[in-house]
Design a protein that fits this description.
single chain, globular, Rossmann fold, 25% helix, two-stranded antiparallel ribbon, alpha/beta, 4 helices
C-alpha cells in the first residue's frame, strides 16, 4: 500500500527542501518514492503550437511526450480525487510525498512552519509539525534537520 503524505505550509517555508531531504533518506532505506507538486495555478508546460498541445486540443487524453531522457504525461484534470490520481499514476511507489495540497481531504498532512509564521487554518489536524521553533501543539514536532526521525514517523504511519 502506498503511503501518501502532504507537506503543507506558507510559500518559502522550506517544504521542497525538506521533501528533497526526506526523499534522499527514503531512497537510502530502499523505498520507491514518487512526488507530487500541487499548484494553485494552471500548469503551462505544454504550449499552443506544439504538437502535443494540438493533439490534446483535438481531444486526445492523455498525451504522452517521450524523449531520450524524460517522459511527460499530459491529461485533463477533471476534478479527480487526489488519492485516486496517486493510485493511478504511482501504483508501485512505497511513498508519495506531496508539496502542497492543504485542501486535499483524506491525505495525512505534515505542517512546515518557518520562523515567526502563523499556522495555517486547517480542516484536518496534521500528524506532525516541522519547525525549528517550538510550536504549542499536541502532536509530534521535529526540527528541519531531524530528517531520520521524520522518516521514522512516516514509516510508522499508514499514509
Amino acid at each position: 500500500m502506498t503511503r501518501i503524505f502532504s507537506f503543507i505550509g506558507h510559500s518559502n517555508s522550506g517544504k521542497t527542501t525538506l521533501i528533497a531531504r526526506i526523499i534522499t533518506e527514503l531512497k537510502k532505506r530502499r523505498y520507491s518514492v514518487g512526488a507530487v507538486k500541487s499548484s494553485s495555478v494552471a500548469c503551462e508546460v505544454d504550449s499552443k503550437g506544439k504538437d502535443s498541445y494540438r493533439l490534446r486540443e483535438k481531444g486526445a487524453d492523455p498525451v504522452l511526450l517521450v524523449s531520450k531522457s524524460d517522459i511527460a504525461l499530459f491529461s485533463q484534470n477533471n476534478g479527480d480525487n487526489p488519492k485516486d490520481l496517486i493510485e493511478r499514476y504511482f501504483p508501485n511507489s512505497d511513498f508519495v510525498l506531496i508539496e502542497g495540497g492543504k485542501n486535499w481531504n483524506g491525505i495525512k498532512k505534515i505542517e512546515v512552519i518557518a520562523a515567526l509564521e502563523k499556522r495555517l487554518p486547517l480542516k484536518e489536524k496534521p500528524i506532525a509539525i516541522i519547525s525549528d521553533e517550538r510550536v504549542d501543539a499536541h502532536i509530534p514536532q521535529f526540527k528541519r534537520d531531524e530528517v531520520e526521525e521524520i522518516v521514522n514517523l512516516l514509516e510508522k504511519e499508514n499514509g
